């Protein structure tokens, strides 16, 4: 919200309140006697209740927040019991029989509860309150003005579409606010709120006022309005407001400069001319974090940025100082990401600019941050590898000159300034790790070596280095590489020691690269048992929980020999978890775990007792229930269907389970086929379900209630046969017509 101008001192406010009171008394004599009679006659206003309301109103201005909450709750309860409650408030506001304080409090309460008015009274309420509000708006500034305009604007926002004729003069009354210096700020505030609500009815006469306020005491408010306006009328902002911003910019405070930079940066995406580009360069050269962050935040889609060379150079210069905290994604990281994405879009045009800038880098860190933006795409990236590796190995080397060959030219990068200032190399290891990751995109054969170099940095003493190592490994872990047990258990031990979910995620993703684990190693079987206990005993809200479950699913399939004895507790726990509140992410992990269990222990199922069969049946039902309601999640649905295929193959000889399987499938498979046209079902399941449908349709039992569902399922199943190039018996086709 934009607050009232501070220049309205207490003395001036008191004078305006007195003036307002005298004005309102005269207004009441000419308008509200008739209005009051109308209210009393049409809505049967009870004088005793009116007096009770006034008594409560006297407490509204209490400074005690708890008392205020109780009062407004009391009014809400009264409104729920008395549909015409709002009209009581209107009668108080409009009548000079009540004190100014009561009338003001009635206006405050009305502003909070007017939207609760029953629909049958809405039009009458608007007809009655609108002229009162408009009259207050025309009066000199007073404490009533701000609340009145806010209520007036809210009524317009909610009801103008339905009562267009009633509100046709709304903006004419709002324009009057701009004729009085004391109410200009309230007028701008009103327009700002309307823009935030994406109102498209604001006339050009209102917008035409904004440029003149850019170069006035109201420039802060005008910039906020422009920030919202540019989303709906960028042409007007470019043609009418941007010139005013350019001329007034030097007079702004730093925060307002940041807002102006944000606006101009957004406009540059549509109007990428040299004048705007140069303005953005000058903003970045201010070296103000708040200005840079505001400007760069609007360039979040670098694909839309015109590659203006001076702007690219200014972005590269932003990387001269690393962000104090890499996790906060400051100006250096923002500029780096923008240039990198632009390089992906424009190729040589950007990489040549970056290469030309590299000799101007202030130190090795700056060099690495700039190099990172192009390293994944340039064909001659190998020439930088020795320098990158040297930075990963450096610990405390000071003032050392590094010679690098770039396109045949020798470049010297100083580790310290020429004045002898010490610059510790340790802070550059994270930048080197990111460069090495970027290098692997154009040199995937180097991934194993890169992993060897970067994984140890996860235990670095520098917090930023650790974070940058995680970023680098997050990308590298998705490449094809030869997994290393030492790396994996380094991640596991680090995860246990730090309770860091990012490390846990890396360990989980790393484990996927092992095709099989050798269970003869004690460390493997020990961790396997740890995963079982973790699953059975830990709270699902623990930060490591889901990653441990994902690794548990993998270990079940990847270890040579599963548990010697089947652990029923795992199934019991899983069934309990599936009955908790659905969360798409964790349920995907539960489904993967279920699939792994069914697949690994399929040989055990025929020997299971009835109790265990009931657990499997209950688990299957729960998964089908979830999938029935989450068919938009394709991965979840297909995982669930694979589980059902396992279940079907295991229990195909169990008659009782066949019936259960059919009942579960009746709705689920029909919906699955409808949602996914390319879905192809296991042909044995299709034939089983189709035969079951035929048996039911040809039976003598009364199945009228379920005939439609069975026929829908039958049609879906016959389509599945067609997709699998299987012939459909004409006699079966007749049954489902």
Task: Please state roughly what percent of the residues sit in beta strands, choosing from under 5%, 5-15%, 15-25%, 25-35%, 35-45% or over 45%.
Answer: under 5%
Please report the total strand number as a whole number: 2
Determine the number of helices (DSSP H or I, runs of at least 4 residues). Answer: 36
What percentage of residues falls in helices of 4 or more residues?
55-70%
Largest sheet: 2 strands, antiparallel
What's the rounded overall pLDDT mean?
Answer: 79
Structural class: mainly alpha
Distance between termini?
A: 65 Å
Shape: globular
What ranges have pLDDT less than 50 throughout 5 or more consecutive residues? Answer: 1-37, 396-426
In quaternary terms, these chains amount to: single chain
Q: Any idea what the radius of gyration is?
A: 36 Å
Adjacency order of strands in the biggest sheet: 1-2
Write the layout of secondary structure elements.
Blueprint: H1 10-43, H2 47-57, H3 65-81, H4 85-94, H5 100-113, H6 122-138, H7 143-159, H8 170-175, H9 184-196, H10 204-207, H11 210-214, H12 219-229, H13 234-248, H14 254-268, H15 274-284, H16 289-297, H17 309-318, H18 331-346, H19 348-357, H20 364-372, H21 385-393, E1 401-406, E2 409-414, H22 429-442, H23 447-454, H24 463-476, H25 485-498, H26 501-511, H27 522-537, H28 545-558, H29 568-578, H30 584-600, H31 610-629, H32 634-651, H33 655-675, H34 683-697, H35 707-723, H36 730-735
Antiparallel strand pairs: 1-2
Helix pairs in contact: 1-4, 4-5, 4-6, 5-7, 6-7, 7-9, 9-12, 12-14, 13-14, 14-15, 14-16, 15-17, 16-18, 17-18, 17-19, 18-19, 20-22, 21-22, 22-23, 22-24, 23-24, 25-26, 26-28, 27-28, 28-30, 29-31, 30-32, 31-32, 31-33, 33-35, 34-35
């Amino acid at each position: 919200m934009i607050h009232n101008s501070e220049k309205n001192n207490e003395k001036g406010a008191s004078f305006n309140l007195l003036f307002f009171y005298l004005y309102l008394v005269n207004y009441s004599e000419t308008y509200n006697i008739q209005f009051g009679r109308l209210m009393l006659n049409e809505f049967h206003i009870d004088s005793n209740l009116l007096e009770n309301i006034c008594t409560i109103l006297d407490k509204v201005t209490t400074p005690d927040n708890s008392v205020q909450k109780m009062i407004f709750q009391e009014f809400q309860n009264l409104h729920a019991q008395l549909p015409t409650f709002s009209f009581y408030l209107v009668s108080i506001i409009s009548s000079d029989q009540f004190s100014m304080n009561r009338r003001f409090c009635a206006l405050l309460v009305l502003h909070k509860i007017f939207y609760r008015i029953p629909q049958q009274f809405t039009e009458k309420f608007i007809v009655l309150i609108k002229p009162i509000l408009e009259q207050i708006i025309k009066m000199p500034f007073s404490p009533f003005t701000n609340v009145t305009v806010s209520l007036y604007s809210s009524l317009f926002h909610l009801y103008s579409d339905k009562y267009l004729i009633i509100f046709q003069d709304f903006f004419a009354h709002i324009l009057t606010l701009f004729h009085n210096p004391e109410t200009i700020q309230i007028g701008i505030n009103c327009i700002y709120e309307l823009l935030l609500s994406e109102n498209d009815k604001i006339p050009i006469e209102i917008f035409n006022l904004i440029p003149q306020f850019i170069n006035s005491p109201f420039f802060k408010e005008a910039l906020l309005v422009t920030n919202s306006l540019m989303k709906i009328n960028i042409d007007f902002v470019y043609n009418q407001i941007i010139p005013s911003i350019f001329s007034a910019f030097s007079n702004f405070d730093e925060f307002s400069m940041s807002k102006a930079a944000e606006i101009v940066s957004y406009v540059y995406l549509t109007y990428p001319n040299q004048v705007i580009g140069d303005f953005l360069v000058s903003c970045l050269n201010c070296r103000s974090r708040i200005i840079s962050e505001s400007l760069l935040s609007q360039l979040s889609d670098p694909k839309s940025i015109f590659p203006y060379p001076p702007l690219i150079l200014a972005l590269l210069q932003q990387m001269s100082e690393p962000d104090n905290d890499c996790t906060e994604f400051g100006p250096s990281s923002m500029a780096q990401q923008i240039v990198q994405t632009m390089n992906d879009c424009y190729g040589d045009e950007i990489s040549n600019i970056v290469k030309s800038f590299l000799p101007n880098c202030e130190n090795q860190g700056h060099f690495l941050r700039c190099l990172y933006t192009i390293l994944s795409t340039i064909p001659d990236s190998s020439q930088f590898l020795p320098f990158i590796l040297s930075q990963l190995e450096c610990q405390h080397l000071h003032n050392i000159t590094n010679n690098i060959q770039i396109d045949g030219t020798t470049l010297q990068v100083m580790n310290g300034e020429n004045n002898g200032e010490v610059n510790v190399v340790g802070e550059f290891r994270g930048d080197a790790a990111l460069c090495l990751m970027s290098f692997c995109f154009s040199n995937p054969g180097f991934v194993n070596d890169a992993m060897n170099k970067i994984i140890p940095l996860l235990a670095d003493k520098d917090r930023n280095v650790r974070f940058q190592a995680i970023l680098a490994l997050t990308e590298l872990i998705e490449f094809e590489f030869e997994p290393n047990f030492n790396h994996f258990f380094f991640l596991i031990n680090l995860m246990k020691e730090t309770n860091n979910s990012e490390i846990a995620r890396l360990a989980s993703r790393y484990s996927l690269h092992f095709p099989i684990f050798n269970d003869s190693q004690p460390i493997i079987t020990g961790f396997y048992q740890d995963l079982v206990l973790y699953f059975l005993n830990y709270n699902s809200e623990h930060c490591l929980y889901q990653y441990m479950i994902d690794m548990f699913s993998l270990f079940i399939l990847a270890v040579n020999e599963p548990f010697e004895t089947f652990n029923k507790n795992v199934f019991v726990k899983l069934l309990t978890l599936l009955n908790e509140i659905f969360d798409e992410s964790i349920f995907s992990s539960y489904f993967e775990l279920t699939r792994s269990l069914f697949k690994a222990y399929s040989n055990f199922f025929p020997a299971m007792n009835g109790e265990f069969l009931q657990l499997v049946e209950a688990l299957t039902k729960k998964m089908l229930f979830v999938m029935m309601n989450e068919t938009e999640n394709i991965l979840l649905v297909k995982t669930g269907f694979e589980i059902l295929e396992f279940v079907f193959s295991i229990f195909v000889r169990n008659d009782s389970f066949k019936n259960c399987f059919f009942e579960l499938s009746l709705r689920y498979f029909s919906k699955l086929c409808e949602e996914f046209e390319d879905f192809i079902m296991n042909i044995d399941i299709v034939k089983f379900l189709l035969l079951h449908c035929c048996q039911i349709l040809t039976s003598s039992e009364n199945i009228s209630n379920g005939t439609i569902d069975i026929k829908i399922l039958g049609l879906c199943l016959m389509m599945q046969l067609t997709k699998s190039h299987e012939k459909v018996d004409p006699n079966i086709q007749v049954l489902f017509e």
